[in-house]
Structure formats: structure tokens, C-alpha cells
Amino acid sequence: MIESILITIVPVAFLILLFGGGALFKRQNIDQDGEAPISKTLFYASKYSVLVLWGAMVLQVWGIGISLIAVPAILRWIAMLFWFFGFALLFLGRFELGTSFRLGTARESANLRVEGLYRISRNPMYLGIYATILASALYTMSPLVIALGIFVAAVHHRITLAEENHMQKVFGKEYEEYCHRVRRYI
Predict the structure, then answer these.
(1) Contacts of the segment 90-95: beta carbons below 8 A, 24+ positions apart
(2) Are the C-beta atoms of 43 and 132 separated by less than 8 Å?
(3) What's the pTM?
(4) DSSP-H helix ranges across the chain
(5) Structure confidence by residue, pLDDT tens digits, 52-73
(6) Arithmetic mean of pLDDT, 148-158
(7) Residue 143 CA to its chain's centroid (Å)
């Protein structure tokens, strides 16, 4: 029961932070919704697919079996480690970005964040998403979840590349130097 509650609370808390933060941004006249750096359809299909993948893991943990096979306990424990590690990256990455956080690329001027997690990875939040996708795939072992996870990971990598191109244009040499010091993911 504790496993089910913890696995459910973490994405719910992150979504509350994400959307609550968006409401707070609006009060400060900051638009959290940036420009989609790739096709808008593909961008939002991928973002909403992440929610489907998270939902698949939550359903599975509550016994609403979407898995075609019995998932071994060791695989479920490994999945939970990825799940909590991924959400730790998502929470920390979101907090460290502060008012620079956007879904997509910023429409207005924002600051380049290179402290905290961003000293280790240029994209800790995407790394967190990849970890939660892997967790969902391992926990459910559902071919549909695995296929959707591959789609999301591929699209998010394209988003990462497009956002890096945008950052290069906006921040120039400062971003180039940052890229030489810090790897894209790990």
C-alpha cells in the first residue's frame, strides 16, 4: 500500500508544482508557456504522452494490470529506483530554474542557469523524464508503454537539440563555454 501511495503522490506533487507554478508565473506577468522548439503537434503530443506513461505506472501499482506478463519483483524495485531518481531530478531541476522555467523556449529574455544540477547536466529535467519513462516501461513491461516511451524519448531528444540551438543563438559564447564544461545529459 505504501508503494502505491508513494508512486502516485510523486507525479501528482510534481504536476501541482508545475501548474501551480504556472499560475504563480501568470500573477508575475511571466508566461510559463514558451515557444515549441519543434513542430507544435509533435511537441505537445510528446509532453502529454509523458502523462500517459506516468499514469500507466500508477495504474499498474494500484493493481489495474496493463502488463501482459507478471513483472518480477526485482524489476519493479529497479523501476521504483528510476522513478524516484527521475522525479528527484525533475523537482530539483524545476526549483533551480526558478522563473527561467518554460515549456519550450522562452519568448522573452531569461537567464542561463549553470548552478546546482546544471553544473552536472545541461538537461537534468529531461534526464528525469527519461528515468521515469524507463521506470514505467520496466514496472509495467507493457509493449504499448515501451513503444510510447521510445516515441517520447526520441521526440524529447529532438526537443533538447532544438532548445540547445536556441540557447546557442540567445547566449552565444557563454552557452558555448557551458557546453564544453557540462555534458548534455550526464
Answers:
(1) 90/14, 90/125, 90/128, 90/129, 90/132, 91/14, 91/17, 92/116, 92/117, 92/124, 93/117, 93/118, 93/124, 93/125, 93/128, 94/14, 94/17, 94/18, 94/21, 94/125
(2) no
(3) 0.94
(4) 2-27, 40-61, 73-97, 124-140, 143-171, 173-181
(5) 999 999 999 999 988 889 999 9
(6) 98
(7) 21
